Task: inverse folding
RNA sequence: GCUCAAGUGGCGGAAUUGGUAGACGCGCUGGAUUCAAAAUCCAGUUUCUUCGGAAGUGUGGGUUCGAUUCCCACCUUGAGUACCA
């Protein structure tokens, strides 16, 4: 019987689904293991071969853990809210829910045919009301919480109210808005309930505030910092501007330190942790307050507070710089400087964020005319403004120490501000000295002679003594904007009474997305939900009612924004534990049993988005006692991207290139229909170098001849040809099989490539045009997308799985090339032949040979090590070696061949199941004929490695001379060092190598190597 | 600029504690089988070579009996981040 993969795979996939083979139980005597994939956004384009890479890896691990006796949770779902479905709705009017449902169906079909061992009974979809009910619920919990720095955790807002009414806000150590007004317990009690609500909002973990947001006009929505790359939107590359808007925000800054500390206890890659550390951006230093010297006697005293990481350089301060947007600028600027300052502010305001980022070398600024007083020397310090100081970081003001900071140095030089040197024995005439550890402080009163560490400590102490500063830690991490002006997202469970947000009671959730006529913003600029006509909250009936009924007494308007994409993905891993629970977000029993994710696999592009926000929510839920762990994923692996290999042709002719020589251009303008040519890569390369090869020369001669025949007087005028050939991509569908040869006829018939329809292809002597292949990201527009459906049809799911793993290390970026898949495919055919031939099953009860046992056990050892190290590529090689060896040994022994299948089963589950079942029944069995009680290979135990089969009695020693291996010698392993040395020296090849020299030294490492020096 | 990865045949890659560099596969070359093709099987395939050998893991140096592996400097590529005080 032949290896009929299409038949086998379809039947086993059906069998697994029907028998719920991979369903995980929420209680079990077995140890638990949770393997999680980052769930996909179901896009309309479906899967390409790059997408399943991580899923295959996690599936191998999940199957391996089942063989090891674990109760494995391996779920899958869909991150199904998002922009593309909404944009499709805007274009076509089709409801995003329908688009999403269709896309999910496609994804499911594609995933199913790869043979994943997902427990689909736990599927989640973030856009399902039964799911987002709990996303809304978490939002309410965040609203009802504040962060207590004393207990270092989130607490219920009621505890804050209690503190307020007993002692005001004086003693509260909370993470909250800036500029909170102090009040006493009496004040609090006297406040109106609205005023109280306003104050509480400044403390809540999710809060409504007018903040400066990143507004993307093209997308009509705000974006979070992680959704902006180089000043433009991640999606679409549209410009982003700063704008003040009232938005929901998440007080993630409350968790900055815990998010940073938590990284130390999780096994994530260093680069990913590093990204998160950078994003959190902790810097330790001091805040220092400078008194501004009054210009006139009746001026209000003001202060400028700054954050610095170098309080030790306080005596080096020779000026201060404020961000142009700093609120004090107008107040302190002197009348003489007002014109200059205003002009500068105007000039900076005109520059976009992007310009400012791109141009960091130009030094600009203006003097305010004001002076601050040095806290210790009491000397006056000029106050400048400059756009190198960012309003959004620290306090938006810096104390400038030109001798210790490059930017301050450049600024001081540019504006001729004095530079004070406070470093002992350091020359600062050329540049600033920012290496804090290599000198001691001088010229600094009480800091003289101290090193960086001691001086910092002392400076902070002295500042505290005079009440003008304290030690402070600053974080770059900003609170995350949580409102989006979109339709296809979770609605907020929020209505407004007199402009104050009110939470809908959790018992009335979910608040379902309303129907709208149009998915665009309203004419008055409200978000799409502003189009909904039934979008008001009736506080008596506790239901969503028509907007007409709004009376602002019992019926109130609902929130028009929706939640961002990361809302639903920040907790989904917990929902899988108890996916259908209607009363809780997951039951306590399920959460206690599964605890956390043991292995999480997904892309590194989520490093500062999803992976940070989800850690934040997990910590919050942990504080609330809802989840048992404050980090949800013990280990995380980033799979690398699979790149496509695009195929290029090189065109020459109108519409494909410029027309040179000049005379030919003129002729073309005169209305001659020119010829197009597709030339080989070598001709193109030569053209780039300005040389002409025979082919190009021939083409030009042909063109000239044609013009001449039409009566034009043309001639070729030069050899300059660079840039006249145009490379263009062709679709992989137009290549012959998996080769690089172009199927010219099919290309010409494709309407996508109509521009090349009439071209003449310059082929080789066999009539082939060879395309040039280059590695790029897979994308539809590059025509290099490979669909897994095609691979599965041609080679089978097992081949696809093996090949994706065989390509290279999991974490690495690597190119896909379908041609290579024949290697793993013929391995599977060879494997099949080991078990079956034309007469049926070959497996016997024969006693295995020593060699076969050795092959098996070294394979067990290697494969087990590889899986545990996530080195899946090398285990595929190991399987190939094992199959090659066993074939050579003509092994038919069940004792060898049965355990081998268990080893292979995580990688190639279909063929392993088929052969395993066949061995059980002594013939190639059809899945349909299996008895009811049959337990498949997934219940089989992973084979035990037995080292005794690998014991050797001799070793083929490499004999090296000065470290270079020259020949080998077979010697017994129990031979003593001396005996080995004697035997090697006695060998005639040794004497040959030495050529008469006497060895200075002989290194013998028993069991490893012999090295002769001399 | 800073941070983090990574540089090995024509290609993807292997060598897990320093110990026979190039496993395994693709591609290529030759052969067998076939009327022919596909498929399959066998042999070869780092480079140079006077066929004895010699050189060789981005470059230059170092440590070591011995370095793809450890250390220093540099070059290149990729990713992230950026007037962060």
Result:
């Amino acid at each position: 019987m032949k290896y009929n993969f299409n038949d086998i795979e379809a039947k086993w996939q059906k069998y697994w689904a029907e028998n719920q083979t991979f369903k995980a139980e929420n209680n079990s005597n077995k140890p638990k293991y949770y393997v999680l994939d980052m769930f996909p956004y179901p896009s309309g384009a479906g899967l390409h071969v790059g997408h399943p890479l991580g899923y295959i890896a996690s599936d191998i691990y999940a199957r391996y853990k089942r063989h090891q006796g674990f109760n494995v949770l391996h779920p899958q779902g869909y991150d199904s809210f998002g922009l593309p479905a909404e944009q499709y709705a805007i274009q076509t009017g089709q409801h995003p829910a329908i688009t999403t449902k269709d896309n999910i169906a496609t994804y499911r079909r594609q995933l199913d045919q790869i043979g994943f061992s997902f427990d689909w009974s736990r599927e989640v979809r973030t856009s399902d009301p039964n799911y987002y009910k709990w996303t809304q619920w978490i939002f309410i919990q965040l609203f009802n919480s504040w962060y207590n720095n004393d207990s270092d955790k989130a607490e219920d807002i009621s505890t804050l109210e209690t503190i307020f009414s007993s002692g005001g806000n004086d003693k509260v150590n909370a993470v909250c808005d800036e500029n909170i007004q102090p009040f006493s317990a009496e004040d609090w009690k006297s406040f109106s309930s609205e005023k109280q609500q306003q104050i509480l909002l400044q403390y809540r973990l999710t809060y409504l505030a007018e903040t400066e947001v990143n507004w993307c006009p093209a997308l009509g929505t705000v974006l979070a910092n992680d959704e902006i790359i180089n000043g433009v939107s991640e999606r679409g590359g549209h410009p982003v501007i700063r704008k003040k808007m009232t938005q929901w925000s998440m007080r993630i800054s409350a968790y900055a330190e815990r998010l940073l500390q938590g990284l130390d206890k999780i096994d994530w890659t260093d680069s990913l942790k590093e990204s998160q550390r950078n994003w959190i951006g902790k810097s330790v230093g001091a805040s220092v307050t400078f008194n501004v010297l009054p210009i006139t006697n009746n001026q209000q005293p003001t202060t400028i507070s700054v954050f610095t990481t170098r309080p030790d350089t306080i005596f080096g301060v020779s000026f201060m710089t404020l961000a142009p947007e700093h609120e004090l600028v107008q107040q302190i600027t002197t009348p003489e400087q007002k014109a200059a300052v205003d002009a500068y502010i105007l000039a900076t305001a005109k520059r976009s964020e992007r310009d400012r980022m791109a141009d960091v070398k130009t030094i600009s600024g203006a003097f305010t005319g004001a002076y601050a007083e040095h806290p210790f020397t009491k000397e006056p310090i000029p106050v400048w403004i400059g756009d190198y100081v960012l309003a959004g970081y620290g306090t938006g003001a810096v104390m400038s120490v030109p001798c210790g900071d490059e930017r301050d140095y450049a600024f001081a030089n540019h504006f001729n501000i004095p530079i004070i040197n406070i470093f002992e024995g350091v020359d600062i005439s050329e540049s600033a000295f920012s290496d804090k550890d290599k000198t001691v402080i001088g010229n600094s009163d009480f800091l003289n002679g101290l090193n960086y560490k001691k001086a910092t400590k002392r400076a902070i102490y002295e500042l505290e003594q005079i009440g003008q500063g304290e030690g402070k830690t600053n974080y770059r991490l900003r609170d995350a904007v949580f409102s989006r002006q979109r339709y296809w997202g979770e609605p907020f469970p929020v209505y407004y009474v007199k402009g104050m947000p009110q939470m809908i009671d959790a018992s009335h959730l979910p608040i379902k997305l309303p129907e709208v006529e149009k998915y665009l913003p309203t004419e008055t600029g409200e978000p799409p939900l502003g189009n909904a006509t039934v979008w008001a909250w009736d506080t008596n009936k506790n239901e969503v009612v028509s907007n007409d009924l709004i009376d602002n007494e019992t019926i109130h308007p609902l929130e028009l924004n929706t939640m961002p994409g990361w809302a639903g993905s920040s907790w989904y891993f917990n929902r899988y534990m108890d996916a259908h629970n209607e009363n809780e977000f997951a039951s306590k029993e399920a959460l206690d049993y599964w605890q956390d994710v043991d292995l999480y696999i997904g892309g590194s592009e989520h490093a500062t988005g999803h992976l940070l926000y989800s850690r934040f929510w997990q910590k919050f839920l942990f504080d609330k006692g809802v989840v048992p762990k404050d980090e949800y994923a013990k280990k995380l692996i980033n799979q690398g991207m699979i790149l496509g290999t695009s195929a290029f042709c090189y065109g020459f002719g109108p519409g494909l290139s410029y027309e040179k020589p000049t005379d030919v251009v003129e002729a073309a303008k005169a209305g001659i229909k020119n010829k197009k040519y597709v030339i080989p890569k070598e001709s193109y390369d030569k053209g780039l170098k300005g040389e002409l090869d025979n082919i190009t020369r021939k083409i030009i001669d042909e063109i000239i001849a044609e013009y001449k025949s039409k009566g034009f007087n043309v001639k070729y005028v030069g050899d300059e040809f660079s840039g006249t050939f145009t490379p263009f991509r062709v679709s992989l569908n137009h290549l012959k099989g998996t080769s690089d040869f172009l199927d010219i006829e099919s290309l010409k018939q494709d309407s996508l490539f109509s521009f090349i329809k009439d071209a003449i292809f310059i082929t080789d002597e066999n009539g082939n045009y060879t395309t040039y292949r280059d590695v790029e990201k897979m994308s539809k527009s590059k025509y290099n997308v490979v669909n897994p459906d095609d691979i599965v049809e041609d080679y089978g799911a097992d081949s696809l799985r093996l090949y994706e793993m065989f390509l290279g290390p999991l974490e690495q970026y690597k190119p896909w090339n379908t041609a290579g898949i024949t290697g793993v495919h013929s391995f599977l055919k060879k494997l099949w032949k080991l078990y079956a031939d034309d007469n049926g099953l070959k497996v016997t009860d024969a006693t295995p040979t020593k060699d076969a046992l050795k092959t098996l056990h070294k394979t067990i050892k290697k494969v087990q090590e590889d899986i545990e190290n996530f080195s899946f590529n090398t285990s595929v090689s190991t399987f190939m070696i094992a199959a090659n060896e066993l074939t050579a040994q003509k092994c038919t022994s069940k004792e060898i061949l049965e355990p081998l299948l268990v080893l292979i089963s995580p990688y190639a589950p279909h063929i392993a199941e088929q052969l395993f079942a066949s061995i059980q029944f002594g013939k190639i069995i059809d899945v349909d004929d299996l008895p009811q009680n049959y337990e498949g290979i997934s219940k089989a135990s992973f084979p035990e490695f037995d080292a005794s089969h690998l014991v050797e009695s001799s070793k083929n020693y490499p004999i090296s001379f000065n470290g270079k291996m020259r020949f080998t010698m077979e010697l017994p392993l129990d031979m003593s060092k001396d005996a080995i040395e004697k035997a090697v020296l006695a060998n005639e090849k040794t004497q040959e190598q030495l050529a008469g020299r006497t060895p200075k030294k002989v290194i013998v490492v028993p069991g490893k190597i012999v090295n002769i020096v001399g």
Q: What stands out?
A: The radius of gyration of chain A is 36 Å. Chain A has a mean pLDDT of 87. The longest helix of chain A spans residues 850-868. Residues 952-1013 of chain A form a domain with the Ubiquitin-like (UB roll) fold (CATH 3.10.20.590).
